[in-house]
Amino acid sequence: MYSNNDFYQHQFDGDIIDEVQMSRKDTIKQITMATRDTIKAAKENSKAAPTAVEDAIDAIPMAGKDNINALSTSAKDITMAAPTAVDANPVEVDANVFSSLGGSIAPIVPSDKDSLDYNITGLKKVIIFNNTTFKPGLLLTERKGGVEDEKSIKTTFNSLQWNVETHRDLNAREIRHVMQNLQTSPETEKLAALAIFILSHGKNNKIVFAKDSKYRVDKVVMSALTADNCPQLAGKPKLVIVHACNRKRKDTGVEVIVMDPNTNQGSGNTYTIPKFADFLILRSSFWKHYSYRCPRTGSWLVQALCNTIKQSTEDNLSLMTAVLKTSRSVALDKEVRMDEPTHRLHQTKQMPLLFST
Fold first, then answer.
1. How many CA atoms lie within 13 A of 328 on its CB side?
2. Of 1, 70, 173, 196, whose CB count within 10 A is highest?
């Protein structure tokens, strides 16, 4: 347990201040370019009223000045914001109590805090977003074979007693509507687990295509399922499986030779692995979220990982299990506490992000 006197930093000390300074430079650059563009447009447009042009040119520096002042204030606030970190130590209470965050009813979860397994007894559901054809303006080819994937998902999960809901060739607005209905449906609270398959063309790790336009998986799908936006699914497993090209790069692979255990030399047996095989990547926090560290005791992630690895050698845990326990420890056992309860960082959490290849 950290004391309230511990000065706790969450990447403020260099990273965020540098980010603010860069933002100020970018803002000044944008103001200069915008001023140039406005003057150029005014000269080219002979019909423009002189006073209107002058007003437009004057407005740009003023707006820029406001932006810079706002950034300066943010930098000052960030430098002064020094939260203390404490171990989360929840008190055992009855369910349906008022949450300390926002005064709303705390959601009931099916598994104990220290449980390593989910309780998925009950109704389970699969939602498939299968986009195979697209509007001509997107210049995307038909996804032949997508229907076969859809059939396989249905057959597999129906055999496991999961309900399967299929949506074919929806536009972005319709996909958002499905997610909104999921949030408000009385059936959602009865679910023990949810799986969402997104089958489409993609642009990068976050962006995929609907029938008419692109959308972000993290904003449209994942954000709709978070514990605050969909408390009915809090503490329940939510699988998001995306099949979509990220870019146009190809992986030609690398041929490897199997080692002979008797000679420690190549055995002659070969096979090919992808270039990015065998990576286990653990990021300290979810996309665009703060990571925390204390000058006295170190960062939450690194300290939790080292402690878990020490325990894993005694308990004979696999590396993957140790990493999962690390992520769980950071997520559930740590919390930021501020001396001022109304501070925007008070009682904030950290959720590590895991990738494996």
1. 15
2. 196
d(CA 215, CA 115): 35
Amino acid identity, position 76: K
Between 349 and 70, the higher pLDDT residue: 349
Q: Which residues of 116-125 are buried (b: 16+ CB within 10 A; e: fewer)?
A: eeeeeeebbb
199-212 as b/e, with b when 16 or more CB fall inside 10 Å? Answer: bbbbeeebbbbbbb
Query: CA-CA distance, 88 to 77, in Å (whole number)?
Result: 25
- How many helices (H) and strands (E) the chain has is answered by 7, 14
How close are the terminal C-alpha atoms of the chain, in Å?
Answer: 35
Which residues are CB-neighbours of 180 under 8 A, at least 6 positions away? 224
pLDDT at 36 (0 to 100): 57
Cβ atoms of 208 and 252 closer than 8 Å: no
Calculate Rg over the CA atoms of the chain: 26
Angle formed by the axes of helices 17-44 and 50-80, nearest 10°: 180
- Mean pLDDT in residue range 31-46: 52
